[in-house]
Amino acid sequence: MHSSLIFTALVGILARIVSADENGDALKPTPTATISNGTIIGTTTSIPGPTSAIPVNKFLGIPYAAKAVRFSPPQPHAAWTTALNTQKYGNACMQAFPPVALRPFTESVFSDDPKPNEDEDCLFINVYAPKKQWDPNNPFPVMYWIYGGAWKFGDTSQRWYDGSHFAALEDVVVVSVNYRTNAFGFPISPSVPLNQRNLGMLDQRFGLQWVQDNIRHFGGDPDKVTVFGESAGGFATDALVTSNAPNFHAAIMESGVYAYLLAGPCDNNNFNAWNALVQALNCSSGDQTAQFNCVKNDRTQQQIKDAQEAGNGITFGFACDEVTLVSNPRTRLENGQTKNIPVILGSNTADGSLYSWTTFANNNTTAYVNARLSGNRTIQAGIERVYPIPQPGGPDNATILGSVDTDWFFHCPGYWYGLTSTKSKPTWRYIFNAEFKNTRARVPSGWTWPEQYQRAWHSSEIPIVFTSYDAPTAESTQNTLSNTMRHAWGYFARNHAPPSELNWPQVGKGSGGKDVIEFGTDKKAGVSIVEDVDHCDFWESMGFKNFHA
Predict the structure, then answer these.
(1) Torsions phi, psi for 128 (to 5 deg)
(2) Which segments constitute the Carboxylesterase type B domain (predicted)?
């Protein structure tokens, strides 16, 4: 008994010594950390605080896996013996911006300038950590960011994804992970085993394991990890929830879920995209194996990128491997068979404005639904009735058509998800309705997307959540709303519930059962609890709620 107590005391002393050493490394002017692979050298930035600047440690471009092998799952990185400089972002994964007619617009809106270097060697992770003494018995919560990009593009170096304000002002450690997209990340080929087709999702999980193995060296708590993402990143977050993935403990989904995505179930035998890629790369000679080897071994990364971006583009989907992506997410959610963790989810009031403007700005509702739902006259007539346009033609139609896309693809899936999720796990929903000039989309020369039609557009909440907008041009109301939302997200990561001062009701618990919080009630800093009035009953009556099993 006595020797046991001595051993316990020694372990505690040893832990404090190790922690003190790591604190010392983190507090150096040029911070270092020793992770499982070796020592890394970071950099320090500072964020304006209430009274003085607050320092933050940044470790950028840390390899969390070995150099990616084309069409193969991530593998562990070998150890290094010399300290590795991690003071700038690593390569972005290979991007694809189809169709070619919209590429200048899409690249301008969703990429920074200058654009990052693209390479298949892209499995890098970034850590933003408070530069302060930490208590090993009370480490910082961790927030793990998954970017969006329609599963075709995206990377962690975008300025909107900088986690410095979270680290400085909320005392959380933010981690952002690069993952493969398009054909490089989802090679849906008959020659690829089913359990290796969702490489991008395997990358995300590999990054989560890296967090478990290493985040304590930055002051983070591996037992308090919140995954959050937007659009495809929200989908990916839900894929982790509905598949009961390990290594995280709470989730935030911004403008994207999987369980009620209105795209129908997986088809693991649909190889149309792969066949189109094979044809475009002149790899169609020989049998299936020869074709696969041609794409894998005989074509450059640039050739594969170009083939996907040409013409109307080649779009790769997903595989329901029942590990990274289950085939019955709705049923699992309704039966309480998903990961039992607290969830925040929501959408923007004009999530669909980007898509309606770029494609249908001058068309009427009939032209729109013919393009979206060719041949289904019942649904077409219903949309024309619920979303009427008095005067066919003209750019003002974009506002109404944007509402169709918003409800169809973003708002209603989130609405249904919340009502189901709250039956088995604490769930909160939000609506984002704020508009600020310095978060308008960057529209390239020669293109138009008038500000009055952008509104609270898809992804415009991200710089408010991260406080990563251009500070010198910020409005005071913008700073106020950003402080509110960033704190709500950070508080949730620490306490698995929103801060009490928001009076944010759980889904189904407020008056009428439809109460949600609205950020930007007055399109600025207003925050209020509102009843979610929508057209989701219409979409449910058309059968869209039950697309997934």
Answers:
(1) -115, 120
(2) 31-524
